[in-house]
Amino acid sequence: MKYDTTLPEFMSMIQQKEFAYKPVKWVRAKHLEKVNLSSSFTLFDALYTKYGRIPTHQEYISEGLAAAKFEIEHDPKYYWITWDSQTEGYFQGRLCRSYPSHVVEYHAILTLKHYWGKKLWIGTSSQLDGVLGVDFVIVSKKSNKAVYAHVLKDTPKSFYYLNKKGSKYKFPVNGKTVYFQRDFNHNSSHVKLPWTWYESESTKIVNGLPLFKELWLGRTLSRAMQESKEVINGSDSQYLKLHSTLKEYGIKMEYPWVS
């Protein structure tokens, strides 16, 4: 996904009525809670490519439902799922709740580019997310110190699952199983960036959507950079370890740097 939209352009766009966040009724379906459709992992990026911008909330839900229905009806492993009103309602609710997280992360990266792009390298990719487990990495152009950022909703459940993911070691990449030991629960180079559904110290609400407050984001990441002990090109660099691991499996490292 590209980050060539400027922050002022993004803020102007996100305030248009078609981008308004409209919650949908939650439909419960306990038998579907552990179903993770592959189409959902790439949906936001795919729609950005299709439209040349981030999708609206309604576009994300409608196209996500179409992709979910197709995957469930054509993938043999989902033979036990019937696409009915309950199934559609459940996945509609899941799509509705996942959309803001993508917008928060996208806005955060544009904010960093706008205010601190001359001082930082900013990186994000599916490999950094899927294997290393981070939403984006920032690197000081002056010191080469690195900070790995995790964007999450400010709830006990979100923190629980993030901490649980912090020790995973087996990941699917390009059809291969890659073994890479994560360890970000007690690592000073990792920082958690929690957002809320309401106006708070970290969050502002624009057109119903949560976005990080620029001053809070800058202060939080500045403090994290001071505390980080990792140098991006050092012997303990997690980024270089990821690069080396993927190379061992014959997988090319994606170029992550957007600034």
Question: Which key terms come to mind for this protein?
Answer:
single chain; 259 residues; alpha+beta; 2 domains; two-stranded antiparallel ribbon; 8 helices; 8 strands
Measure the end-to-end span.
Answer: 13 Å
Q: How would a crystallographer describe the biggest sheet? A: 4 strands, mixed
Structural class call reads alpha+beta
Relative strand content: 15-25%
Strand order of the largest sheet: 1-2-3-6
User: H/E series, N to C?
Assistant: HHHHEHEEHEEEEEHH
Topology:
Layout: H1 7-14, H2 38-51, H3 57-74, H4 85-116, E1 120-123, H5 126-132, E2 136-140, E3 146-153, H6 156-165, E4 170-173, E5 176-179, E6 190-195, E7 203-206, E8 209-212, H7 214-227, H8 238-248
Parallel strand pairs: 3-6
Antiparallel strand pairs: 1-2, 2-3, 4-5, 7-8
Helix pairs in contact: 2-3, 3-4
Q: Brief description of this entry?
A:
With about 260 residues, the chain is of the alpha+beta class. Helices cover about 45% and strands about 15% of the residues. The chain has two domains: about 100 residues, no CATH class; about 140 residues, no CATH class.
